[in-house]
Fold each of these.
Amino acid sequence: MKLPVSFEQFSKDPTKALMFLLLFVVAALYARSENQAKYANEVCEKRLIKCEAELKNMSVMLKSQDSLCSALVTEIKIYRSLGKI
């Protein structure tokens, strides 16, 4: 692969060489950050799906506990009205 500039040009003007290298570094860092952001989003999506499933299970459990509690309260009222408690 032939670069658009030669080593001779870089040796004549080192600031251009430095700027050229910095351009590659910035492009590489940008690509790396994009990949890290994509990976972080994928991990967050997986965690979100897992949390939503757990929330759904907890909601079902809470509803069943609520109905059980309601039944027990009714039963206690009946026993109190009968004088058993």
Amino acid sequence: MKSLFTLFVLFVSFSAHATWEEDFAQLKNIPRSYEDSGSICEEVGRLEMQKEFPAPQYSVIVGIAYGDEARVIGELDLVIFDNNLQKVIKIGEVKCWKDVRGGLEKAREQRARFLKAIRSNRSLRFFSTSTKEAFPQEKFEYVQEFFSMAQKGSVAQGFDRELEYTLKEMHDYRYEMIRCQNQGRCVRP
């Protein structure tokens, strides 16, 4: 019985490691800075959402800022476009924080800020924070679904979804990506 348990533990450990290897293989080719501690969570969240919302029907984009002509009002962590409908169908806020409840409160505040801005009837600009690609405001006006996402164990704290990894694992993976970029094995921004 003991060896069966040991085999199970090894299988679970290997499965989690294999998942990171798959994620790493995809992330190493994305020119993203991982200096911001939340960046790895956003990118892993994007990979998970792409499994649920695959191309070519959907596009999952990380980091779309919005604002008026004078300033940036906020940033949307994950935006899921339905390419057939030509509109945003879901917006997600990703918060990998030690204070999980604080992260959830911040995600809720950001959603409220977005809804207030979009309902204000002001002309807003939407653009990718990495590529500067612009998106028409009308693609965002009728989004009905929002979700919050954080590290493993966060659903029990009120988040809608959780990543496959703990906060410690996410921090370790972030450092691994930074090291890989510094060594020239991974794409840099």
Amino acid sequence: MAEKRMLIVPAELVKKIDDNRGDMTQAEFIDFLIDGQLKEEIKEQKYATKEEIRSFEQDMKKLLKNFLDFFVSYGLELGKQSPKTEFEELTSKLQELEDDLGSEGKGKKEATIKWK
């Protein structure tokens, strides 16, 4: 049987341990936490920050605006007679995107996307 020792810790820490350990004993829980911190294989999980998400959103809006610009101009070059309401709807969507990009895009960093 393993030798046992006493560890003196603040009462607040014991309360945290008891609140979070579930069905484990205090010793098992502390051992589990230590093992998790000392593992040789460190699994890094990278999460996007709020700024990166906003930047990505802005970039996607710019991309969408460019696609809409292309398709509108392509349709106009072909001489397709599209209904006036459809053209006005596309124009208003483009204007909304442009306004949105102008108001939110000030001072924002651009996101870089790496494809694998």
